[in-house]
Amino acid sequence: MSSRATLDERSRCTLLVNFHGSGFIFPRHGADDEFCRKMSQETGRTVLDVQYRLAPEHPFPAALNDAEDAVRWVLNQPHKFDQRISISGFSAGGNFALALTNLFPAETFHSLIAIYPVVDIHTAPELKVAPEPGKAIPLFMSRFFDACYVPTGYDKRDPRISPFYASTDRFPKRVMIVSASRDSLAVEAETLARKIAKEPGIDREVVQARMQGCEHGFDKRAIPGTIQWDAREKTYAMAAAMLLR
């Protein structure tokens, strides 16, 4: 028997694989450093923060393929990493985290954390209204992001593109979805969370929270003492608690 197969399980890393936001086009790798650091400090997990290819030079499915490759790289090294893998993502990265559930068995992931994720690219941006007035993503930018990411000829209801249309039995047993009240992406994310929670016959924990008074990307611009800062601290604490379940 290989000596690697007999390693004490305590010597293997428990991983959180994270995917940053980007609008599918912006090089924002490293933007989640504070989140990744806090998750590592609070939960003892090693955090793999994944950089992926960007549109329009690399449209769908390039970035999702990179996300899938990162997870398979972990799964193919059981001597280094235990198999209680969790995944997280912000904005476009949340889209990838949710979409990965269509590429792996549901039991692959210990938990899934999606923070203000892009969930439904099929529905036109002009039909999406934030629950609360505020500084939402400009309409022209939403259209541009979607056009860059999804080439002509793809069905935008493909659950790898729009996880909103995925079969809810594909999601892991622990799911956390956080939305922002002044974000036009909030309603679709919240609706998906409710759909997952209602899946019959599955013992699943779904945590869904809307951060009031907050815009898309609220945690990245948060200043201590503000509503956004409090929402950031609450969101990160909820994520750590989910990972420790």
Short summary of the structure?
GO terms for molecular function: hydrolase activity. This is Alpha/beta-hydrolase. By secondary structure, the chain is of the alpha/beta class.
Chart the SSEs and their pairings.
Layout: E1 15-19, H1 33-43, E2 46-50, H2 62-75, E3 85-90, H3 92-99, E4 109-115, H4 139-149, E5 174-180, H5 186-197, E6 205-211, H6 227-243
Parallel strand pairs: 1-2, 1-3, 3-4, 4-5, 5-6
Keywords: Hydrolase
Protein name: Alpha/beta-hydrolase
Pfam families: Abhydrolase_3 (PF07859)
What features would you describe in this structure?
By secondary structure, the chain is of the alpha/beta class. The protein has a single domain (13-244), classed as Rossmann fold (3-Layer(aba) Sandwich). 30% of the residues lie in helices and 15% in strands. The protein contains 6 helices and 6 strands; from the N terminus they run E-H-E-H-E-H-E-H-E-H-E-H. The protein has helices spanning 33-43, 62-75, 92-99, 139-149, 186-197, 227-243; strands at 15-19, 46-50, 85-90, 109-115, 174-180, 205-211. A 6-stranded parallel beta sheet has the order 2-1-3-4-5-6, sandwiched between helices. Strand 1 (15-19), helix 1 and strand 2 form a beta-alpha-beta unit. The chain is globular, with a radius of gyration of 17 Å. This is Alpha/beta-hydrolase.
